[in-house]
Design goal:
The chain has 129 residues and is mainly alpha-helical. Helix content is 80%, strand content 0%. The longest helix has 29 residues. The protein is elongated, with a radius of gyration of 16 Å. The termini are close together. The mean pLDDT is 91.
């Protein structure tokens, strides 16, 4: 497995999430976001910056970084779907749309990192293939 072919698009997807999250904070500043919007926007921006850093670690073979990326890429879209379906979540329509886009991008990461050849490159014994 060529690690560059895996982690380059994953990094690009996480950078896209970071850019979109920062843009959402900019929208909140212009339209006057509630505390829920600010907390969610800041948390997603911080998490995406962390995920960009983890991508570099995973590309260098660090299994723990890979496992964290796998977990987040599965859990985050599930949480986003719950936000989108909640009737009174406190999120304005524009932020639900932004979160929908973020969810699709992170789900794309899940599809990439959960492929068999990627999983096999990060065995539990710590021996990279």
């Amino acid at each position: 497995m060529d690690k560059k072919s895996v982690w380059t698009p994953v990094r690009a997807l996480f950078i896209a999430v970071l850019v979109i999250s920062i843009a959402a904070l900019g929208v909140a500043a212009v339209v006057g976001g509630t505390w829920v919007v600010w907390v969610r926007g800041a948390a997603v921006a911080a998490a995406s910056a962390w995920l960009v850093a983890l991508t570099g670690q995973a590309a260098r073979g660090r299994r723990s970084a890979y496992v964290r990326i796998r977990f987040v890429s599965i859990a985050a879209p599930i949480g986003i779907v719950l936000i989108l379906l909640a009737p009174d979540s406190g999120y304005p329509v524009w932020m639900k749309a932004e979160q929908g886009v973020v969810g699709v991008l992170v789900a794309a990461v899940a599809l990439i990192v959960n492929r068999r050849e990627v999983r096999e490159a990060y065995p539990k014994g710590g021996k990279l293939r």
